[in-house]
Amino acid sequence: MEKVLIVDGHSAIFSTPWLRELHQTNNDSGRDALIRELSDYQNLSDTYVILVYDGKGNTIGQQGGTEQEILILYSRTNQTADTIIERLAAKHAKKHDVQVASNDLMVLESCYASGAHTMSIDSLWDKIDYDLGKRSQHRRS
């Protein structure tokens, strides 16, 4: 069974001090750092990663998604990243081992009801460290 990790991008950035600091300096640098961390995880594990952000356009935006790149989705103007996360979890939890990482309790409850495993962003960092066999405490400083 394929492992899929769906990450709430803004939740990850704003609840991780070093990412939040980068984001406050330059929006793109916070996003880029998160993408690098999750890309490294995907490349070193057996987990496919989907990162979801609130978007600003009229269509769903997407980048990456190859075996080497994580899939990054941006919501439409009239929808939220939460909606996309919940829809992805409901669609894929029936066939795959889906894990959702967010600090939004309503998103986590909805995804759990769909059959996905859920975790906080702090738990996500712990999982990444454990799965990769390292203890990288810089994420919480």
Give structural notes.
The chain has one domain (3-89, 100-135). Helices cover 47% and strands 25% of the residues. It contains six helices and six strands. The model has no long low-confidence stretch (mean pLDDT 87).
Short structural summary:
With 141 residues, the chain is of the alpha/beta class. It has 6 helices and 6 strands; from the N terminus they run βαααβββαβαβα.
- If strands are numbered along the chain, what order do they take across the biggest sheet? 3-4-2-1-5-6
Largest sheet: 6 strands, mixed
Low-confidence stretches: none
What's the total count of β strands? 6
Our count of domains comes out at 1
Backbone structural class: alpha/beta
* Bulk shape: globular
Mean pLDDT, to the nearest integer, reads: 87
Q: Tell me the Rg in angstroms.
A: 14 Å
Strand content of the residues, in percent? 15-25%
What is the helix tally?
Answer: 6
First and last CA, distance: 35 Å
Secondary-structure blueprint:
Blueprint: E1 3-8, H1 9-15, H2 17-25, H3 27-44, E2 47-57, E3 61-64, E4 71-76, H4 81-92, E5 97-101, H5 105-113, E6 117-119, H6 121-131
Parallel strand pairs: 1-2, 1-5, 2-4, 5-6
Antiparallel strand pairs: 3-4
Helix pairs in contact: 1-2, 2-3, 4-5
Properties at a glance:
141 residues, alpha/beta, 6-stranded mixed sheet, 6 helices, 6 strands, globular
